[in-house]
Design a protein that fits this description.
The complex is a heterodimer of chains A (255) and B (482).
Chain A lengths: L1 E4 L3 H6 L1 H13 L3 E3 L9 H5 L3 H15 L4 E4 L2 H10 L7 H9 E3 H8 L13 E5 L2 H6 L15 H6 L6 E2 L15 H4 L1 H18 L3 E4 L2 H14 L4 E4 H5 L13
Parallel strand pairs in A: 1-2, 1-3, 3-4, 5-6, 5-7, 7-8
Chain B lengths: L5 H9 L2 H24 L3 H17 L1 H14 L3 E5 L2 H14 L4 E4 L3 H5 L2 H7 L3 E4 L2 H8 L16 H12 L8 H18 L2 E4 L3 E3 L4 E6 L3 H7 L3 E7 L3 E2 L2 H15 L7 E5 L7 E7 L3 H5 L15 H5 L3 H4 L10 H11 L16 H5 L6 H14 L5 H14 L2 H14 L5 H4 L20 H15 L12 H4 L5
Parallel strand pairs in B: 1-10, 2-3, 2-4, 4-7, 5-8, 7-10
Antiparallel strand pairs in B: 5-6, 6-9
The chains are: A alpha/beta (255), B alpha/beta (482).
């Protein structure tokens, strides 16, 4: 399967290991992956701030980079949500509509399109607190939410259960927002940080060694909080765990 | 009018750990009680849909139902007044009170009278106004606006209330026992209720087919306000209309379950006609509602039944407290209602949200609250109400992210420079992120450069004969296309 990989700007710049894990994982699963080299961002930071017109150039570039592919996959729910639901600063021609319909968040792609359930190369003998971003949860529908009474399901959990020896812990408020919220994290810094501290403490109390999420932006924020708190907890993107990340072999340089 | 500084307000509220933790836990427990009610009713989602449809139908035929309501109210012997805005509302209420030589007005909680700033208006004209809802009374005595639409003083601890009562009612400042405080307030307020010449209530639902006004309270104070004085005035926002008593049942089932997680409020009182020898007045208030009804993206906010479920679930509200919103309507619903009243003053509120969407999921009338917050941001920006720094930053970001060359240069520079900077240069008062959080460490190389290296490695290993080497010749593909 020929797919294009979209690595969001902040992952490209700060968390290359997440991009690497995503690429390697997709290749392991038999995908033929292209990474268009002139990609930058999806336009979300501007649009979420109300500055749609400032997002237009970025969105047009995104479409030029990805319109030739049947599937575009990105390890970030909030970026994918922007492409799918909010990429409307530009004229909605065929290519734009095609790109918007064909962009998948990694967990959705693995769970729904590739329908993979086993990750035999992956072993993770640690206690994991799963963090679903609000976008993954309430916009993309990764899992059942506490506000609505539906039969329990969780796509990321289903995937992670395919990892050997993984153990889950259960925080008190699993689907409470962690307070990242894009530019909110800077413009509303006091509340954002407080929410982040509360989130990290909830996972610590539940006994988590690692917080794992499909959204690196939430983890960037939570990790920043945890470091300042002096909390003994680590952070991994779900792609890293599914790709067989082992803390022993990654002593330095990564998360 | 300067824009509300929600960040400053939240910082002040967060400064007291005990207040913030109490608020968070109290409202989270309401949210959990609401969840239990939701789960106990398999038809909950259907009820929400039904409630939403009834409201949308009524709002899209509002003229019809308002006139029906007026007709039936007049037939029941109620006097009906129409107020275009807050000033008209206050003037009409004052005229009614002046006609009856009213010196004291007792009232139950009404967000609409807060919205109209009626209390100071009447006070200036020599009329004493007594709030009879306990929380609202606390806020009145403390000269502070309600911080929450259902539990107005929820941001206060009982020790704070003891101080307010000691100062204003002469109670023991060191006795913070809630029973003592409630009883003291009751003893001081009851005589006023018995003396008052007029009573006022708000209105939860105005039923068009009967001309009935339904008021939901847990303290019974609305019944005292309405039934003891001979004169009863009801302030009604025009969006409160519903067609029939059958429709009312849907909302009564949803209201208290969504608000407090209780099946129904202690008192659900229906007022339809003046009692013998008495007078009853309805004041129907627009105050911007018609204008909102004409807004394509935002008229859904008029469906709101003021249950506060969105506030209770809001993770931002539970950290910042309601006072930080600087508005009668705080929390998520406030963020989408207040800008319709004063865009400049409330331009910051749509940004006091992470867009997490929990508010939309709990709303009993299915208002797409977080989507409206997102849309308000664009309106704020296009009306030039964004702070200059943010506007400039977004313009610059838009330019950089539209250009692969500029973007790549920025990432490479940041990755090269950041690790070498002294901490003081990175963590200072210009860095809001770094105030309470660490900045992510810069990696040795970006994903982009790692990928290019890998492709070169792979190209070197692959024999040119198999054709794989040219699939992503970095040099060719790396050329920016503009």
């Amino acid at each position: 399967m020929k797919i294009a990989l979209f690595i969001p700007c902040f992952i490209d710049a700060y968390f290359p290991e997440v991009g690497i894990a995503t690429l390697e994982l997709l290749e392991r699963l038999g995908c033929d992956v292209d990474y268009p080299l002139t990609q930058t961002c999806c336009g979300q930071p501007m649009a979420n701030s109300g500055c749609q017109s400032d997002a237009a150039g970025c969105e047009a570039l995104f479409v030029r980079n990805f319109s030739d592919y049947d599937h575009i996959v990105a390890p970030s729910a909030s970026c994918v949500h922007h492409v799918r639901e909010h990429m409307d600063a530009i004229d909605q021609n065929y290519n734009v509509r095609h790109v918007r319909e064909s962009t998948y968040e990694l967990v959705d792609f693995l769970h729904d399109i590739l329908q993979v359930r086993d990750f035999p190369w992956a072993e993770f003998p640690y206690k994991v607190g799963l963090h679903n971003s609000c976008t993954a949860l309430r916009a993309l529908g990764h899992a059942a939410v506490s506000e609505i009474d539906t039969p329990p399901f969780s796509k990321p959990m289903t995937l992670l259960r395919g990892v050997k020896d993984i153990e889950f812990v259960h925080p008190q408020r699993p689907d409470e927002c962690c307070g990242f919220g894009g530019t909110f994290s800077v413009t509303e810094a006091p509340v954002s940080a407080k929410m982040g501290y509360d989130k990290v403490n909830d996972h610590l109390s539940a006994g988590a060694d690692f917080i794992v999420s499909a959204d690196m932006s939430c983890l960037m924020h939570q990790k920043g909080c945890a470091q300042r708190m002096g909390a003994n907890i680590q952070f991994l993107h779900i792609a890293q765990v599914l790709n067989g990340y082992s803390p022993a072999s990654h002593k330095a340089g990564s998360l | 009018m300067k824009a509300i500084d929600h960040v400053k307000g939240s910082r002040e509220f967060l400064a007291s750990v005990s207040h913030q933790e109490f608020l968070d836990q109290r409202l989270w427990s309401l949210r959990q009680l609401r969840d239990a009610q939701m789960k106990a009713h398999p038809e909950w989602q259907q009820l929400r849909t039904l409630a939403s449809e009834i409201k949308e139908h009524t709002l899209s035929h509002l003229d019809h139902y308002l006139e029906m309501f007026e007709r039936n109210a007049l037939a029941n012997g109620v006097k009906v007044h129409w107020a275009k805005d807050a000033q008209a509302h206050n003037r009409i209420v004052h005229e009614i009170l002046a006609d009856h030589q009213v010196k004291t007005l007792v009232k139950s909680k009404s967000m609409l009278t807060e919205e109209c700033e009626m209390r100071p208006y009447l006070n200036e004209r020599g009329i004493e106004v007594i709030e009879t809802d306990l929380g609202e009374r606390i806020q009145q005595l403390d000269n502070e606006m309600p911080s929450h639409i259902v539990v107005p003083a929820v941001h206060k601890l009982s020790a704070d209330v003891a101080k307010v009562f000691a100062r204003t009612l002469g109670t023991d400042p060191d006795n913070a026992d809630p029973h003592y405080l409630a009883e003291q307030q009751r003893q001081k307020t009851r005589p006023k209720i018995l003396q008052a010449e007029a009573g006022m209530t708000g209105c939860n639902f105005a039923v068009a087919e009967t001309g009935t006004v339904t008021v939901c309270t847990n303290e019974g104070n609305a019944d005292l306000s309405a039934n003891i004085p001979a004169l009863h005035i009801v302030s009604i926002g025009i969006e409160k209309i519903i067609p029939s008593m059958t429709d009312l049942a849907v909302f009564i089932r949803l209201l208290s379950r969504s608000a407090l997680g209780s099946p129904i409020t202690q008192y659900t009182s229906h007022f339809r006609a003046p009692r013998r020898g008495g007078e009853m007045h309805y004041v129907l208030v627009d105050n911007g509602r018609s204008a909102r009804l004409a807004m394509e993206d935002f008229w859904y906010s008029l469906k709101c039944i003021r249950c506060s479920a969105c506030m209770n679930t809001c993770p931002v509200y539970r950290r910042s407290g309601g006072i930080s919103y600087g508005a009668v309507y705080s929390g998520p619903i406030g963020a989408i209602i207040n800008p319709t009243m004063d865009l400049k003053k409330y331009s910051t509120l749509p940004f006091a949200s992470t867009l997490n969407g929990s508010c939309t999921q709990v709303c009993p009338v299915r208002i797409n609250i977080h989507e409206q917050i997102y849309k308000w941001r664009a309106i704020v920006a296009s009306n030039n109400e964004l702070p200059f720094a943010k506007k400039s930053a977004m313009k610059a970001a838009g330019k950089i992210l539209a250009s692969p060359v500029l973007y790549r240069a920025l990432v490479d520079t940041a990755n090269a420079v950041m690790p070498k900077l002294p901490r003081i240069l990175v963590y200072n008062s210009f860095n809001a992120w770094g105030e309470a959080r660490e900045i992510p460490a810069s990696p040795r190389q970006s994903f982009h450069h790692w990928y290019q290296e890998r492709q070169r490695r792979l190209a070197g290993k692959t024999s040119p004969a198999d054709g794989a080497a040219d699939t992503s010749t970095p040099a060719a593909k790396d050329k920016p296309d503009e």
